[in-house]
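TA notes, week 10

Several of you asked for a full example with nothing omitted. So below is the full record: structure tokens for the whole chain, then the designed sequence directly under it. When grading your own attempts, check the secondary structure regions first.
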């Protein structure tokens, strides 16, 4: 890491050190306010998409539960004869049996959190198919210096990044 000059209150000519600290605090407050505004704006943009997705998850749960309860009512009727194929083996039904419990619902707090997180990641992504590659900053293992990925590109040669093996 590079050494950055620090402002120490009380150094230099008395009032200039205090005004420098006040300017730094004001700059920091402004930066935090801008970040808060950006986060609020992104939430307002993402919220309708999130509500649509949450409604679809709820609707899928509702339809699954409805099918389960309607299936119970139909069980009071006589069971249809078992279908046999040409070899005399039993043909499985078109729909598997529906098992509804709290463990296999789609619209849960955990799934809604995952949907919100995924939509935020998608909204703030920097790389798009067919677009230019982002020039992300990387930290070198020796010396902990910051450089950009595209600093390693040479001419028309493709740049290959190997992040190691996951196996």
């Amino acid at each position: 890491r590079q050494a950055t000059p620090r402002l120490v209150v009380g150094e230099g000519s008395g009032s200039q050190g205090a005004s420098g600290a006040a300017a730094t605090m004001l700059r920091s407050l402004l930066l935090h306010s801008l970040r808060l505004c950006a986060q609020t704006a992104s939430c307002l943009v993402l919220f309708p998409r999130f509500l649509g997705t949450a409604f679809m998850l709820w609707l899928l749960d509702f339809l699954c539960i409805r099918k389960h309860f309607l299936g119970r009512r139909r069980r009071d009727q006589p069971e249809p004869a078992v279908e046999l194929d040409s070899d005399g083996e039993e043909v499985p039904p078109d729909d598997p049996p529906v098992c509804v419990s709290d463990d296999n619902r789609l619209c849960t707090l955990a799934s809604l959190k995952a949907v919100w997180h995924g939509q935020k990641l998608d909204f703030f992504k920097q790389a798009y198919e067919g677009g230019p590659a982002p020039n992300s900053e990387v930290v070198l293992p020796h010396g902990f210096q910051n450089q950009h990925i595209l600093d390693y590109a040479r001419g028309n040669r493709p740049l290959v990044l190997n992040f190691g093996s996951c196996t």
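The first strand starts at residue 137 and ends at 139. Use that as a sanity check on your answer.
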